[in-house]
Amino acid sequence: MFAYIIKRLLSGVIVVILVSMAVFALFWYGPSSPARPICLAETGNRCTPDRLENYEEQLGYNNNIVDEYGNYAKGIFTGREMPIGNVVIDCDRPCLGFSHRSRALVWDELVERLPATISVAVGGAFLYLALGIPIGVAAARRRGTLGDKLLVSSFLFLSSVPYYLFALLAWLYFTLIWQVPILGSSGYTPITDNPAEWFKGMLLPWLCLGIFGCTQYTRYTRGAMVETLSEDYIRTAKAKGLPPSTVVYRHGLRSALVPVVTVFGIDLGVLLAGTIFTERIFEIQGIGRWGLSAVQAFDLPVVSATALFGAILIVISNLIVDVIYSVLDPRVRLS
Amino acid sequence: MKRTKSLAVVAAFAMVTLAACGGDGGDGNTEPSGTETFIDPEAGFGKIADAEGPAPEPEGATAGGTITVLIPSDPGPEDLDPTNGWSVLGNSIQQALTNRSLTQFRRNAEGSMELVPDLATDLGRPNEDFTEWTFTIKDNVRWENGDPVTPEEIKYGVERSFDSETFTSGPGQVYSVSNFDCGEGYTGPQDGDCPGITIDGQDITFKMQQAFPDMDFWSTFMAIGPIPLENSDFPEYGRDPLATGPYMIEEFRVNESLTLVKNPEWDPASDPARHQYADKWIFKFDQDQEKTDQILLSDTPESQTTVSNGLGATNVQDLQAALGDNYIQQTGQCVSYRTPDYTKITDINIRKAIAWGYDFKNIQLAGGNIPGLTRIPASAIMPPGMSGRKAYFPDGEQFEYNPEKAKQYLADAGEEGYKLTFIYDDSDPETKAAAEQEKKGYEQAGFTVEMIPYQDDAYALWDDKDSPINKKLNLRAVNWCSDWPSASTMIPPLIETGQPYNTSYFSEQEVDDRIKEIATLPLEDQAAAWGDLDELIGTKYLPMIPTAYRNDLFGAGSKIGGFSGDAAMSAIYYKDLFVKP
Amino acid sequence: MSTPTMGSETLGHLSEEALPGDEAPATKRQVSGKSPLRIAAGRLRQDKVAMVCLTIVVIFGLIAIFAGTIAGWFNVTTTPGNPAEDLNYLNGGMPYKGPPNGSFDPDHPFGIAPKTATDNLATWLYGCRTSMMIATSATILASLLGIVLGLVAGFVGGIVDKIISFVTDLFLTLPFLLMALVIAPILSERFALKPDTYKQMQLLSLIVILAGFGWMGVARLVRGEVLSLREREFILSSQVIGMSTPRIMFKELLPNLVAPIVVAISLMLPAFIAAEAGLAYLGVGITQGSSWGQTILQASSYFEHYPLYLWEPLLGIVVLVLALNLLGDAIRDAVDPKTRR
To answer: Is the domain B334-550 a CATH 1.10.10.60 member?
Structure first.
């Protein structure tokens, strides 16, 4: 098991490195020099070739891409000194570079924004399961009936609406039109400042993410439960005269959870994408929104950092899932 | 990719508007009478050289509270460095709340804007021929860290505005470089001392390269305000510049938000225009238009103290009804033009045909504007309210959509089916829809149209004479706002040969000569001379077709008091805002 | 939110897990001489919900194919309207005739759009075509890519399998939305100078992006199935008689994979339709011509004043996505008899 984790971690590291290289190269060989947007913004559209060259030199974009990526990667582990204009910025490790747009070290900003994104993602992910699994189980127990079809298709209906519209309308109605007191003040307050405010502000974003995202958990739980409930050992348990709820939850759910956990592991990574919309609509200053505006402004260091962050998150969550997998289903042996 | 920067936004981004003054704006002339009403910017506001602090209290003003300002579809300034500040939005916020300069604008009880002293004790004392200006700096102004503001720091600020490598987009590149006499090729503090700026006690004297009667207007720009001698290197300083005004920066997130809190070192007695009512300001950039409108309509406790920097066309009627007095229609000195390529479209009849083929109402509607409310049909190059403006019609009467007339002109030119090529930004649904309407209009007027989708910055493209796309174009555009209400900040940058924003590539010796000549005229004759030149250009050459004069709509929640527009900046007048109890 | 990788990806895991169970019924069916797919189709025909959904999907498909003809029947076009005449722009900007304030306008059965006064029905019809075309093409492209890579990885095994699996993992790790946002402008910039091909290229680049990040699920699924089939007698015997590898893969293996692939595809379609709408909000997508995603984006601010304008494309998407999803579920149930009991 230990050797397996090490092996997975190693391949994860390679994947993460390749992802960061891909993002780096995409920008490097993109439509125009990565220095150009900065040059345009800084010079009020008077970006002459001379000035562009100047910026390229300042930002290191006239170097060889391999060297520059080397510098970037080295900076993560050892820190580096970055000359910006006539000042030298001391970028301690882990140095993810300097955002010319926000004039801040990328790592500092990443750390600062992390709690907001984690708040959104963890709460949303919790609701995925908290809503999805019970509904899925309920549907499975009533399989084939009208109740089953209604449950499944009503959630399916909700999640067919484009998510941004779903969240936007939820925000408009709960905050402004109905002014529901507890849902009415969405936004991020650090949990360390005021836990009650934090909870209140996060509730609507969580509900939106949760209701929208739980649909597929409902479907997978239902599917897996239907399958499990027809297994022989469940029939045996029923025959023994165990109460139905014990049979369903103790015996059935345990093995039905296996595929659900798999979906969940991948979703934790995909959640980063979900937070882009959520953070934008609910005004949460987290990593998703940051990455979005960085992409739009071609802010390479920030885009690289968010891509790196997302990749690491996905690799780690996949690994955790595999471990949980082996706990839930003894037939699976990690090797 | 720059979705948020439509053409209109880019223009507002690049230039500051400072409007109205001079006293004789448009008087004696009959305005072109359209069916639409045009709210004239306050003409005739004066200069009060002896205004002193504290500023007059607006009625019912109370202290306390937080004011939230929502800014839809504008990403806001990229940095807050005063030397770089040259956008309507950034300057209107910073100059009103955080950064003081030598002079400033104040809105008086009648609602007109007046020029009053700020850091200086008066509006500056010019010599006879306006080649030397002296200001005396007040001795009771301090930075947020408690240090006094000194004339040396103002001198440094002016010197800094010469630095074209660091502050390429700063207004100093235009006005400092061409006016202050710092010697040939001076490029900022790294070249040492500027010999043309001398300090004597609290007095600071600027020597000019030539007569510069508008120095008191130029002095309102924070770009030539004080900059600390130490720890003020770009770009770090642009993240958190030291404040001299009533508020200082607590947090600035590029494209997201700006939070201001009270500056304890600000002394009301030194400031004839600013107040310190609210405890805190939160500016939120790049907001969703619909969300912003709905917040203002909802009248929740939070929205009652919210201000919107732009109202959406969809909800204008509702907002007007809901907000009452806190709904403002503010005229700016901003004009949109269509600029046919003067080197390619050489026949004035074709240019006239374009003017008559421009389907004003449909284009504005599709573009999310309201004809007659936020966009007014234009005639002269100079907008109403500018001193010396002459109301005239380039073709005898107001241009309005008339395909038959356009066809006639095309026939006169012998160019039926003339092909127009222009770019449009297809990533923004509104600019795209407006372009499609424009295409349809021209086609019905007998033109052939080719539209090239282009999402990057249009001005950068039009400035690039080697670009293969630009070479294909024969119809461009420019949106321009004057920096202060003199045609010298309007006509030369748009018309003179070789100017970067002369997107028609217009070049006529007669006009260039006249522009140079006007600068040498006696001061009192200059305004009228600009008006005459405007008419000459419009009727004889028509190198650019003025399509619209632009108005802004602002709104505020029910608990915001002192809400008004700033005719000088075409922005919200932040200085008087307070939260009602 | 609706990333195309999700739906199909999860399927991959699911079936890997359910492998041992899948074998038994498959063998039985082979004995009876009917292909698994035919049996499933028979079951599907019994499912009323599935048949209703299938009808809806077919209708939408016909609408997409004959959008131009249908627009012709109603005499509507997507050309820009005449807002100055048709909209009451000084009083809220709503159309004088037709919805939301007036009664039914026979010239414009779905009403006209605010701001542009373009006909809504025409926009809707062509939007349907765009959405369907993007989703269908991306699905075909993604499943082809996934099937080929999965087949090769599963059957050839060894180093090839390692490499393909690694690439699959790599693509799963790339943050889809960020990448789409980066790639889309690069692709469209390449073709901006050729206005005649720009529209096609824009469509193509969106399809490539969607497919490029949507094939991994199918690849994993197919690889998993192949791994279990590879050791079965009929494959081993075809190897013994000297069949070429490509022939084994496509003639022997592929027919046995049809069922899971059909399921994967039926769930990929709705995911892509939803993804197009989501990407439109972030500024990635179709700007030439109309698409449902673009219309929803523009209509979202009229949810109060002109709800019909928003509901038309929204209902289009919701009904189609719902029908496709339910159909997908039904196909899966039909293919895998265990979930039906």
So the answer is: no
Domain membership flag for residue C120: yes
Domain that holds residue C162: 46-335
- Whole-Å CA distances, A187 to A281, B552, C110: 10, 29, 38
**pLDDT by residue (tens digit) across B255-282?**
889 999 999 999 999 999 999 999 999 9
List chains touching C (3+ CB pairs under 8 A).
A, B
Give me the residue spans of the domains in chain B.
334-550
CB C3 within 8 A of CB C173: no
* pLDDT given at position A235: 80
- pLDDT of B380 reads 93
- Give the model's pLDDT for residue B156: 95
Q: Which two tokens stand for residue C127?
A: 């939007």
Structure tokens at B129: 């021929």
From B51, B214, B55, B44, select the one nearest B122 (Cα to Cα).
B51
Mutation target vs A (from B230, B253, B455, B501; most A CBs, 10 A cutoff): B253
Nearest CA of chain C to the CA of A87: how many Å? 30
Domains of chain A and CATH, by start: 32-105 (no CATH), 107-328 (1.10.3720.10)
Q: At A284, is the secondary structure helix, strand, or coil?
A: coil
Residue range C200-223: average pLDDT?
87
Supply the pTM of this predicted model.
0.84
Q: Do A162 and C183 touch (CB under 8 A)?
A: no
Do the Cβ atoms of B574 and B258 come closer than 8 Å?
A: no
Contact C10 A216 (CB under 8 A): yes
Nearest Cβ partner for A168 among C49, C283, C300: C300
State whether residue A295 sits within 8 Å of chain B by CB: yes
CATH classification at residue C148 = 1.10.3720.10
Q: Which of C93, C195, C300 sits opposite B313 (nearest CB)?
A: C93
Q: Does residue C129 form part of some domain? A: yes
pLDDT at A87: 67
Total of domains in chain C: 1
DSSP letter assigned to residue B188: S
Contact C174 A230 (CB under 8 A): no
> Does residue C326 sit within a domain?
yes
C91 shares contact with chain B (CB less than 8 Å): yes
For residues A67 and C260, what is the distance between their CA atoms, to the nearest angstrom?
Answer: 46
CB < 8 Å to A153, chain C: 322, 326
- Under an 8 A CB cutoff, do C302 and B366 touch? no
Q: Does residue C85 belong to any structural domain of this protein? A: yes
Name the minimum distance, in Å, from the CA of C326 to any CA of chain A: 8
Residue-wise pLDDT for A243-296, tens only, equals: 887 777 777 787 777 777 777 776 766 676 668 888 888 888 888 888 888 887
Query: How many CB pairs below 8 A link B and C?
Result: 88
Q: Where are the beta strands (DSSP E) in B472-531?
A: 475-481
